[in-house]
Amino acid sequence: MATKRRPLRPNMPGPSSSNMNFRPGGPDIKRGEAKGTRPTAAPTSVREILVMMIMHACKRTIFFDTNLKVALYLGSLFLVSLIGDFIPYPKTYFARSDNLFNVYFVKVGWGWTLMLTVPFLAMTSYTLCCGDMKKMLRHHIPRIVVATFFWLFWTKFFNIIETSYGRCTVKGYGTKSSCLKAGHLWNGFDISGHAFILIYSSLVLIEEARPIIKWESIKDYLRNEIHDRSVSEHSSTNPLRNLSEEEIRNLHFLYDRLTPVIRTLFIGMSTLQLLWDVMLVGTMLYYHHMVEKVISGIIAILTWYFTYRFWYRTNLLPDPAGSGSFFYQRENKDTFVYGRRPTMMTPAGPSTSSGSRSNMPSGSFGLSAQPKFMGMPLYTNARNANAAGSPNLTGANNNGKEVDS
């Protein structure tokens, strides 16, 4: 005959444990007794599942291997454009210069890019800086200023090249403006501004969207850190462990308030980046000569590489996208902040935003190989992950002790 389950601490003062999602504890509760008392995640609604499915699809689209995408850009610019120079492609709607996408999107492409990127960068950076406005303005906003400067510089440079090294189809007109005003054509070396803006905007969108990778894990880190502090425990693996109480409160508030908007902006950025790729195919097929497009593509890729892959990985400001008062993307192979020394400090000590491998807990290198669903790990600690990946190696990296992820 079944008997009624005996409570763990029947005389425990305070709220009933049935109303809590973890067992009550405190400084007087020993570590061995408190084992397994971490709070559990709230139930996931159907709406949340649908949103995560859309987010997963967008991540798969925009975070396609960047190095491979760059190679595809250059290869297709050369090959598709070269064929089009000798064998004209069949005309479609995209061959018309007055098509809807060209007039209302490509010609103002940088404006569309900024319209989505600026608020996304501001909200994610403000959250990761735990509400420190000065830190956000100094360490993150300059990336958009730099990107806008290079866009303006190169587009003006392309116009100067075409104007200075060209001539009118009719003699007697020495400038491009006078030639066009008279109704004639100006033949010059017209480096493709369309190819440049489409490739450069796509790469900027990809890099600035990187904070969304592992963004959902911040909620788990917050829940565990708040619980650990409530029972006077100290985690050796939680990236929020060095934040002050005020920073934890700010992070909790900003994350809950801004995450829905950040997700919406990210979906918009993913859609826009896909549109830029489609319009780039139209540019390859119908506009400019092969040399003009290849040169503009090379300039766009070199500008992106200099800023996001070289400059922002040094110790000079600004910081890479996704950095802040803490670092939450340890197992993300596409996060390019490894090896960068900290440029932001917290009151409790150096920030973990540098992403140096020395700050990673032992056994964390195995997290990237654990089973995942829609980009999120199925297990919440390293031991379970190792057990799923290789039963013979369970506890090898942590001497048989559980390490919270």
Automatic annotation (TrEMBL):
Keywords: Endoplasmic reticulum, Hydrolase, Lipid metabolism, Membrane, Transmembrane, Transmembrane helix
Matches recorded under Pfam families: FIT
Protein name, as recorded: (Mediterranean fruit fly) hypothetical protein
GO molecular function: coenzyme A diphosphatase activity
Membrane topology: Multi-pass membrane protein
Taxonomic superkingdom: Eukaryota
Cellular compartments per GO CC: endoplasmic reticulum membrane
InterPro entries: FIT (IPR019388), FITM1/2 (IPR046401)
Entry-linked HAMAP family: FITM2 (MF_03230)
Localisation: Endoplasmic reticulum membrane
Region Disordered, residue ranges: 1-41
GO biological process annotation, one example: lipid storage
Transmembrane segments: 70-89, 109-129, 141-161, 265-288, 294-312
Cytoplasm found in the keyword field: no
